[in-house]
Amino acid sequence: MIAKHEGEDVYEPSAPVYTELEKVLPGMGWMKHEGAAPRPLFRDYAKPWTATGVLDVSDQKFRLTPLGKSLVTGQTSPQAFFQEFVKRWVEDGQRPFSEMASAFLQADQSLDFRDLYFGVMLGYRRGDDLSASLNAARSHTNPMDDTPKRRLQVLLSVFEAAGAIAKEDPRPSDNDAKWIPWNTELLEEVAGIAFNGTSQPQSADLLSFVADFTACAQSSGLTYGNALVGRFLAATLTKRFCILTGLAGSGKTKLAEAFAMWLCESDQQYRVVAVGADWTGNENLLGYADALQSGKYCAPVNGALELMLRAAADPAKPYFLILDEMNLSHVERYFADFLSAMESANSQLALHGEVSGIALDGVKGGLGLVVPSKLSLPANLFIVGTVNVDETTYMFSPKVLDRANVIEFRASEADMGAFLDAPADINLAALRAQGVAFASAFVQRAKDGADIASLVDTAGQAFGPLLKADLLEVFGALSKIGAEFGFRTAKEIARFMVIHHELTGPSWLYKEALDAQVLQKLMPKLHGSARKLSGVLKELEAFATNKGLTLTLEKVKRMQQRLERDGFTSFAEA
């Protein structure tokens, strides 16, 4: 239905989509009234619909996501969609389908509605004794409340649509029906996506990674679209250094912090470090050996060195160093050693000149940590830098930009309007360790290679030659002003394409991944006068238009407007 009404205004009560929704699905409250003025449901309560991953209303227009389009065209079957949905659905930090799957696997009998209402939904958590929960449920004489009863009916219908369970006899109504396990393999996968029967963390693959984190973030009060989260996570896995830039207060640091909290099982696995305006060397991150007291090492109080030492000693778990307002000082002055260490396993961070290690002194919880003379950058350490652009900050050099994906955060008028309609409190604590099941897979994927030859469409046609042709076209345009890219950048773009495909799944589109890389990897170095940039921006505009690269085209047009207004433009915008 939404496919027929794409582009219609979410906030417009007279939009034809609302007429059809009321006709096809009556009684759902698609329109309410404030006095005489009608107010559409989607204006205030879009989240339950967008959380499915098939609908996007972020620009105040009804749009299908790539997943939604694949459902409409038949590339993804409804049952396949529901199977992926039940694996990743998170509600208020909980996974109701995982609990239900665990219960069905433990049950040695069919379960009726009261069993599932009182015994499972209200009285059971993974690892509990199901028989005790069911016995307690069967002693209940209280009536079922309407709201949780309707919720359970929806959960059961979705679980049936996924093929996980089935009614023992399809004739009775839900109140009189009994359900049995139907697809044991699927039930085991859903039950184990977060925890096994003993409530110990269990590894999960990355297919539902993006949607899982996005849903958890939304339940904590943060609103990030799947597309933005997908670009951020793919960039982080491509290269363990990512830069988030944009408007102050647009959610850059919150995204990095929320993801670290969600993925890590302990707060000792991440640090948010505020970069100071007086940082002129790496001592603020690495500390220094005390020149007056032999055998003593002065660690920075911000915990950055301690975090790196813990990461080196614990290689299977992810660790995050979040550098807030990274460009308050010249990045090259305090971060140059890190930039070099990122490029070679043989390049190490020099810490002191002692032959043996020095015990880390003066750090809370640092007992037992030893500072070696040299430290390789741990392969499980992920660095995220946030950047605000104004007259008090410094711009990055090409040396920095070449080594990272630069993801820009912007707030649209529709975003601001939706926020002002219902300002939400943020509860990051609700995210704590919710994604720990993905931790080991995340670290391993960052270490593993990525072969562009493995990237093929549904007909088996390789994307490698197409990517080569597209990159050479952009290379030709950028080379005219000396902004061409090197072999490392080309390799990282290819790696991003593969990982982005893995995270997105069947709904992946080549042009969306290419769009992200032209914007995040190739355009950030652009800055200069109208004489220098007007030609290359025209070429990029034509390329983006021809290839359907919406993000790139939007950025190019903003840069062109600034060029026309000021005679100068830059990728970075204040």
List the SSEs and their pairings.
Blueprint: H1 16-24, E1 31-34, E2 37-40, H2 41-44, H3 47-50, E3 55-56, E4 63-64, H4 66-73, H5 78-88, H6 96-106, E5 111-112, H7 113-121, H8 130-138, H9 146-161, E6 165-167, E7 178-181, H10 184-192, H11 209-219, H12 226-238, E8 241-246, H13 252-263, E9 270-274, H14 283-286, E10 288-289, E11 297-298, H15 304-313, E12 319-324, H16 331-343, E13 348-350, E14 358-361, E15 370-371, E16 374-376, E17 381-387, H17 398-401, E18 405-409, H18 413-421, H19 439-447, H20 464-479, H21 487-504, H22 510-522, E19 527-529, H23 530-547, H24 550-566, E20 568-570
Helix pairs in contact: 5-10, 6-10, 7-8, 11-12, 12-21, 20-23, 21-22, 22-24, 23-24
For the structure shown, list the relevant keywords:
574 residues, alpha/beta, Arc Repressor Mutant, subunit A, Rossmann fold, five-stranded parallel β-sheet, four-stranded mixed β-sheet, 24 helices, 45% helix, 13% strand, globular, P-loop_NTPase, AAA+ ATPase domain-containing protein
Give the spatial strand order of the biggest sheet: 9-12-17-8-18
Tell me what portion of residues adopts beta-strand conformation: 5-15%
Q: Distance between termini?
A: 40 Å
Which structural category fits the helices and strands?
alpha/beta
Largest sheet: 5 strands, parallel
Protein name: AAA+ ATPase domain-containing protein
Organism: Rhodoferax aquaticus
InterPro entries: P-loop_NTPase
Can you describe this structure?
By secondary structure, this protein is α/β, with parallel strands linked by helices. It has 4 domains: 2-68, no CATH class; 96-192, Arc Repressor Mutant, subunit A (Orthogonal Bundle); 240-403 and 424-431, Rossmann fold (3-Layer(aba) Sandwich); 450-570, no CATH class. The protein has 24 helices and 20 strands. Strands 9-12-17-8-18 form a 5-stranded parallel β-sheet, sandwiched between helices. It has a 4-stranded mixed β-sheet with strand order 10-11-14-15, with no helix packed on it. A hairpin with an 8-residue loop joins β14 (358-361) and β15 (370-371). α5 (78-88) packs parallel to α10 and α6 (96-106) packs across α10. This is AAA+ ATPase domain-containing protein. It comes from Rhodoferax aquaticus. InterPro entries: P-loop_NTPase.
